[in-house]
Design goal:
Blueprint: H1 9-12, H2 16-25, E1 31-32, H3 41-50, H4 55-63, E2 65-66, H5 75-90, H6 96-101
Antiparallel strand pairs: 1-2
Length: 102
């Protein structure tokens, strides 16, 4: 599978927030990947003053997801996360083309 652009809802089949909700229903804790510094109150005005435009940073912050990561994460737990993400896609969260072909 080519993963370029896989973070886009039209490629994966659902938004980050929809996937996070699905994983939460399966007791898998997630959170948004990060909040860009240039959008935080202490830095926002300076970023605007500089005329900064950071579309890639903004896109990643709106689509990326932090999955469970810790030193004692077992292979079984990793497999459970992978299975849940695979299940999310298989249960009607596939791409529009996949849904049309079904």
């Amino acid at each position: 599978m080519d993963v370029r652009g896989a973070h886009r809802p039209e490629t994966f089949g659902c938004s980050r927030d929809e996937l996070m909700t699905f994983l939460a229903r399966h007791n898998i804790e997630t959170r948004p990947m990060f909040v860009p510094l240039h959008s935080l109150p202490p830095f926002r005005e300076e970023s605007r003053r500089r005329g900064e435009h950071l579309p890639i940073t903004d896109a990643i912050s709106q689509t990326a997801i932090m999955l469970p990561t810790y030193t004692h994460l077992t292979e079984i737990e990793q497999d459970r996360v992978v299975h849940a993400i695979t299940q999310a896609r298989a249960e009607g969260h596939g791409t529009r083309e996949e849904r049309r072909a079904a």
